[in-house]
């Protein structure tokens, strides 16, 4: 059970009816606090609570979904995360298998209230809460408060009792990978409501085991099993069906693929509410195992710089690595390493429309970063134990031998990339991040 962090909420989230209005209170838990005196992070009205409620119900369904886990593992419910900051409220979460990431953004024009403090909490979505959200009607007056303001859920005389929530640390690993993938993605397609609904009607029934490709013929988008030029590859296409309940309400949908198709992001727009939905390369692959941040973690960065950048991002609630490097006269590689470390710690998310990172501090202590990256820990141990022999090192090429369990692996670094004779590299060919042998050699020779 070492991969679980158990959260105990002091009180449950609640939706309280007061006359004709409803007030939504989201309970929180955190190991760390930026401002323990803040009564709550945001307090105010949501201008389109019906759409927000539909999006949150869909997000909850995603969180309770799994595409590669056993029924026992699926029985462990997990709760979404909510961030209030930079005039936005963002809810985000993963499927059980961590292969589907979703985020609901309530944008500044969709809120009428006051941000009392910037912060991130873990949200308790119990069943009465979901039932209450499902009962919200069009144009209903709903007051949203992120923090702890009431005890219990009071709805028609009923009271909801709080429960413990086991939160897997693989969520924070998945969050770091997703943000790195998102920061490299670019918008390729924009579809209107009718085009989007037609596209989804073309998803094959049942579980889709083979890759499908998104293509546009004329003005008609469609999915096809046949690969073609400029097509977007989608693994585990059936996972897109999780979005179907939202399609009647959308204004448009935009598609953002990763340059090497390691993920695809489908962004739905509802006026002042936005729903982002990212799929891992295959249904059996979780974002938590992709290792996208590993290479940027090779170079050691001082804790002072990490703390300084953490405070900078917190103060500004947005972060552009390029502008920061220019303002602080720092090397771009150094800032990239800092950015990757902050993302790996769960401190940064990425907004595709704004094309910049946003700050959100997950309720984890910063020193968890190494425990969340076992391959990096393994690489450091290889170096400490003297298991690496550099055979040759010239400009543009390194060859090394790395001792394994009863075998010696060969690692080559050159202009073609990184290669290793280990089983990990043979299986994934570098698609799921570097193996510990390559990480160790790169760290030793940099």
Could you say what the CATH architecture of the largest domain is? Answer: Box
What is the top-level CATH class of the largest domain? Alpha Beta
The major beta sheet can be summarized as: 8 strands, antiparallel
Strand content: 25-35%
Fold-level CATH name of the largest domain = Proliferating Cell Nuclear Antigen
Low-pLDDT residue spans: 29-33, 71-77, 148-166
How far the N terminus sits from the C terminus, by CA atoms, comes to 36 Å
Task: Tell me the total number of β-strands.
Answer: 25
- Share of helical residues: 25-40%
Question: What is the number of domains?
Answer: 3
Shape: globular
Radius of gyration: 23 Å
Number of helices: 11
Average pLDDT, all residues: 79
Structural class: alpha+beta
Strand order of the largest sheet: 9-5-6-7-18-17-16-12
Structure description:
There is one protein chain. Helix 4 packs antiparallel against helix 8. The protein is globular and about 75 Å long. It has 3 domains: 1-291 and 348-363, Proliferating Cell Nuclear Antigen (Box), CATH 3.70.10; 295-347 and 364-368; 374-445, no CATH class. The strands form 6 sheets. Strands 9-5-6-7-18-17-16-12 form an 8-stranded antiparallel beta sheet, sandwiched between helices. A 5-stranded mixed beta sheet has the order 2-3-10-4-8, with helices on one face. Strands 22-23-24-25 form a 4-stranded antiparallel beta sheet. It is built from 11 helices and 25 strands. It has helices at 49-63, 71-74, 127-134, 170-184, 193-201, 303-316, 321-328, 332-344, 374-384, 423-428, 436-445, and strands at 4-8, 14-18, 21-26, 40-46, 81-85, 88-94, 100-106, 111-115, 119-122, 142-147, 164-168, 189-192, 212-217, 220-224, 232-234, 252-257, 263-270, 273-280, 318-319, 348-351, 356-359, 388-394, 397-403, 408-414, 417-420. The protein has 446 residues and is of the alpha+beta class.
